[in-house]
Every structure is written in C-alpha cells, then in structure tokens.
Specification:
Three copies of one chain form a homotrimer. By secondary structure, chain A is of the alpha+beta class. In chain A, 18% of the residues lie in helices and 28% in strands. In chain A, a hairpin with a 3-residue loop joins β7 and β8. In chain A, α1 runs parallel beside α3. Chain A starts with a strand and ends in a 9-residue tail after the last strand. Chains A and B meet through α1 of A and β2 and α2 of B.
Chain lengths: 262, 262, 262
C-alpha cells in the first residue's frame, strides 16, 4: 500500500486537511495517509523543512511526502517534485525541501491537466498538490510531470562549523518539551570536556539522557537526530533560558581532544 | 475500502475519539477513518455544519460522514442518517446537516438493537453513532434504520442576497489564518469594482491570491469554496479588524455591471 | 489487519509521532494505526493511564496498544509488554499500565536485537518501542521478548470506598468539557438521594444527561465509564468550581438505601 505523509500549516480545526485527504483518497484509492503535523505556525517554511527531514528517514523506501507550507499559493512559484533518499517529495519551490536537495533529482510540475478545476486560487493543497501526490501514489513517473529544475529555492542557513577548540552552530529546533535541538553533529563533541554557551547561559555538563540530571541542571545530550541537544530534566529549557530557533550555539572545547574521557 | 470521515467537538486530548474509532473498527473492520476535525468549540453546531459541507465534496462517492457535535446527547433528540450528494451522513438532528438537507433523503434511527449496552447516556458517539456508522460502512441500507424524516431541524441562517448595486451576506467562517470566508458567491461580484464593508472597516481591492497584496492591504479574494473571502497577506485579518463569524458583509457595487473589466 | 493504538505526550507539532509511525509501518507494513492522543501534558503518566484504560475496551480483541509517556527515557527503566483483556500493551515500566495489571501477564523486553541502531538515547519511542510494537503486530509472541515481570511499577492511587452512608473517591479525570469524572462506581449510588461535595462546592441533583439541567445547575450523572461524573449543561464545571484531577469527592447518602426511588 502506497504511503503518503502530510505536513502542512493548515491546522486541525478547519476543513483544509480533510479536503486534501479526501482528494488524495478519491484519486488514489487505498493510499495510506500519515500525518506528520498540521500545526506548524502559518508560513513557517523553515520549521516544515526541519520536521520533514527529521521524520522522513523513519519511513520505508517508496514513501511519498507531501508538504504544503506555501505563503506564495496562487502566485507563479513552482510546485516541485523531488526524488531523493529512495522516497518522493512534493512541495512548493520555497526552500522547504532544502535538506535533501543536494542528493535529489527535482522537477517542476507543468501538467496542468492534473490540476482540479475548483474555485479560487488559494487552495492549491487541494487543487494541485493533492492530485500531484495522487499521481505519484498511483505509481506515476515524476519525470512525466515537468522539466528538470536546476536551481530550486534554498533556505539560506549557515551550516555549523568547527575548529580545533570551538564548535559553532545554531538552535535548529525547539521541541515541545523545550529541548534545544542544535545543528552541531554530536560526533564533533564526542567525549570531550566543553563549555557550551547560548547567549548569556552556559553549561559544562554532558549527559546521555534526561533522567540523569538533577533539577535545574542543564546539559548537552546527544540527540535523536545525531546532533547535540541542550535539555533540562522534566523542565522547559527554552523557556528557562529564553532561547529560540536560530539562536547561536557555541561550544568551547577543552583538553586534548576525543581521546580524553570525562 | 469504505471511508468514514469523523467530525466532533471531542478534542484530541481525551479518550472520546479513540473510543469512537475503536468501536467503528470493531464493528466494521477494514474501514478507512479520516479525521475532519475534533477541535470544534464545544457545542458549535454551526461550525461543524460549515466544515462538513466544505470538506465533503472532496471525498469519493460512497463516503460516510459521521459528525457528532451534540449538546443534546442523552435527550430525545433524534439521530439522523441522510443520503445526499452520493454520500451518506450521520449526525444528531440539531441542524448540523442543514447545508445538504434540500437534496437529501433523511431517516431517523430507530434501530435500538444496534446501540451498544454501555454505561451512562452521555457518550452516544461511542454507543449509538459509531454502531450506526458501522452499519452503513458494512453496506447496510439506511432505509432499514428507521422512518423517513420530513422536517429535520435546520439552522436559521439568512441566505446572502443581491440587488443591482449591492450584495449582502455574512462571515460564514474565520479560518486559522484569519481569512474571512463569506457566504456571498464570488460569481455575484465577478470583475466589478466594489467597496466591501464589515463594520467600520472596508476595502476596494480585489486580488486573486494572498501574495499579490502589500503588507496591511486587505482585499476581497475569490475563495476556495466559490464564495468571496477577505484577507491580508501573511497576517490575520479577523484579528486586525476584530471581525468574527456571523458579522454582516456588505458589498457596494460600482459601475455598469459585469461587462466592465477592472 | 493488525491495529495499533498510539498514546504519547509527544504533541502533534513535532516530528516525533511521525517518526514512530513511519518506523512501525516500515517494520510491520499494512498495520492500521489509530491515535488515542498525543496531547497529554509532558510526563503525565497518570493521565495516560486513565485515557488508555478508558479507550481500550472499545477496540477489538487482538489490538496492540503502544503508550509512550516516558520521563525515564534512556535510563534503566524497563519496557513492558502485557497481555490482558485479549489485547497487548506496550509501555514503559512507570505505572502507566496500572489499571490492567491485576489481570495481566507481563514481560520486560530484553531483545536488544530488535532495537534500532539510531543516534542518542532520548527517543526510545522510535528506536525501541516502535520495533517492539511492530514485532507484536507481525504476530510475534510476547513471551519471546524477555522474562516475566513479577512486580511492575504501579501508580499509588487510593481506590474509592463506601460505607452505609458515605461514598468517597477522587476526581480521576477532567474532560475537555469540564466534566469531573470520578472513580466512584455509579452503581454505588444507584437511585439514592445524596449530597455530593468537592471542596466547598456541592450538589444534591442527579441527572441522566446534560440537557436536563438548568443553566448553572451542577449535577451528578452516571458517566460513560460506569462511574459518577459531575457536570453542568453547556458549561465547564471544573473551571466554575476550581476543581482538578485528584480532588476528593464525598457523597453523603440519604434515606434508606437503594430500594428508595427518587
């Protein structure tokens, strides 16, 4: 059974998600739909990009991902289909697919015959994205959808960087528990001593999991995406420190390097 | 595979939705369940009526819709089953099905043998609506459920009206982005010049989609349900203007009528 | 088709639920996933325990329930699998399964070969619980997962008690409508006169359903779980009375006992 994941900023208190699902199931009966989230802040392309890249590796090869966070709906922005990591991806050309573009083949949808003849130009999720996803779920060839795209829009996010004594990155995501997910690979720190700083706050503690920590004790933890996270045990560190997505993270490395165990 | 949509005011942080789904799947195994929404304000029959009518056309013929927003649960209010638009509908007799009643055959469920023998009279979603939906999902004939209903309860909503120089309607829905969805058919305005007013606020701008608009510029946009919407680009117009569902919308038409292009 | 219910405190605005579902579907293709809730307050084991026990009886025999509210993730707390009530249950050993333990066979998962080799120790939902659930959904024998557990962790909740003239219990749950769900069996009250008190508030009214009640009139209602509930009609009693989960409920019985009808 073909699987489609859905990621939008449509919310769950409106008819938008239902209309997209009804359209997909009408055009590709028997598809299995899995919600990633519909609760992204309106227009939060970067947040969508993060969640999609984080969830997708858990899904089987052949999964189709549909992500509609699309402030440019109705305009001439393109609808992209990408083949990457043995999965297919459908999203507006606004940077949402940035994390996988390096290894992707990308096409811009030109098959207007697939689009629904429906009122208005404000609901491409139902009228354009859903039929394109259904085409792929029915086994359609993405190369038949339109021409190859050489330079899709990309989010301009500076990658993390490292030197002998310092790692610098950013808070890539704040989760619902208030954990600060950074973009710094956990392998860069390894077992070295460190002082990790965000704004006026810092910690020298490393932990493997939350329950190790004393109340109020912030720590760096190797996270579930392979990057460093900063966390408290049972408390919201983002709120405690007043930190949000995009804030700079700086890790001062101490000692001789990875061979030194704590 | 038979499809059931679900629309309730049960919220997603309780056991109610799970119990309804478990019951349906126990009594009609293999059904495909699709959530429309469970986040309606408690008892918001009008909101449920709007969302259901808006989402349903996207679903295939044969889909069963179950809508339980039911402040009269446990009382003698009837449970209705309707056949309309090649789909089946199950809801309390409280006006929820109003938008489709003109073209529907409607029955009141009298088959108490279908109801579950469960504690209390406060959870008909699980104990009565779910088994009725399962009966339909198994291919049961709605006419076997009870007698025909001549005068189901209807919401008393004044329809939009038009004259040569004026369109009058109401805000039928405020979506999560703060767009004001009216009940005025977009075809009534066409390409005419206008001044559209809600309370103390007004706009003369027409647009096709959000991204056309300058910051802070409100416009009338042909919406995805075939009616006029009022919107800002990337901002919440409902909040900006202090407008809510039910507010009166008045469109003063200018010029000679539909032949005049803007 | 094997059914898996999911109950977590992961929220619906992150990638966590999607990653769990993707993993289950990758390892046990064709499974039918049903969300109970993902909106529990972070770490609310007692709330999870209540919702799971409340929803599960509606599901068919053979259903697998996966509940991950797990503040001890990463530590040495065990992962339990239980067989009870003709269904299977997967949860951390933190009391979440308390309501069904009296009649359950319970095992602690020791099959580390099932666990995923994934970064970090903070997302056992994806890396350990999901593969264990998939093992069961594929028809695996729970006894092959590890040794029997004699004394799983239990929540310490005093059971309700009764005497000739008094019933005493607690508010076990506040639902989204503000109904106060107690743990006192409705059969203990039957049709007797009573004065039911929570803190400084009380009512002598009994009702069968909400719509019987005049505005502002609180009543005891036999609830959908077989226990007494306290409710207003169309209003939030929990807020009105300032009552929350765990608050003491005292029912003073009047008259001669159950043979006396109101």
């Amino acid at each position: 059974m073909a699987i489609l994941t859905l990621l939008t900023d449509f919310g769950t208190d409106d008819y938008y998600v239902g209309a997209v699902k009804g359209t997909v199931l009408r055009l590709a009966p028997g598809s299995l739909l899995v919600d990633l989230s519909h609760d992204l802040p309106a227009g939060d392309v970067e947040g969508a990009s993060f969640l999609l890249a984080a969830a997708a590796p858990s899904f089987a090869a052949g999964t189709v991902h549909l992500a509609v966070v699309d402030p440019g709906v109705g305009s001439e922005r393109r609808i992209l289909v990408a083949a990457a990591r043995s999965q297919l991806w459908v999203a507006p050309d606004n940077g949402l697919l940035t994390p996988l573009l390096d290894d992707a083949r990308v096409w811009a949808v030109e098959r207007r015959d697939l689009f629904l003849d429906a009122p208005g130009s404000t609901f491409h999720g139902r009228d354009r994205f859903a039929p394109v996803a259904a085409f792929l779920l029915r086994g359609g060839d993405p190369a038949e959808l339109g021409g190859a795209v050489e330079a899709p829009v990309r989010l301009q996010l500076a990658p993390p960087r490292r030197s002998a004594h310092r790692l610098v990155g950013r808070v890539a995501h704040v989760d619902r528990f208030g954990n600060l997910v950074t973009d710094i690979p956990a392998a860069w720190l390894g077992a070295r001593r460190h002082e990790t700083r965000i704004g006026a706050h810092s910690t020298r503690r490393t932990a493997g999991y939350y329950a190790e920590l004393a109340p109020g004790e912030a720590a760096v933890i190797p996270g579930s995406l392979g990057t460093l996270e900063l966390s408290l045990n049972g408390e919201d560190l983002a709120r405690r420190w007043g930190v949000g997505r995009g804030d700079r993270v700086e890790v001062a490395l101490e000692g001789e390097g990875p061979r030194q165990k704590l």
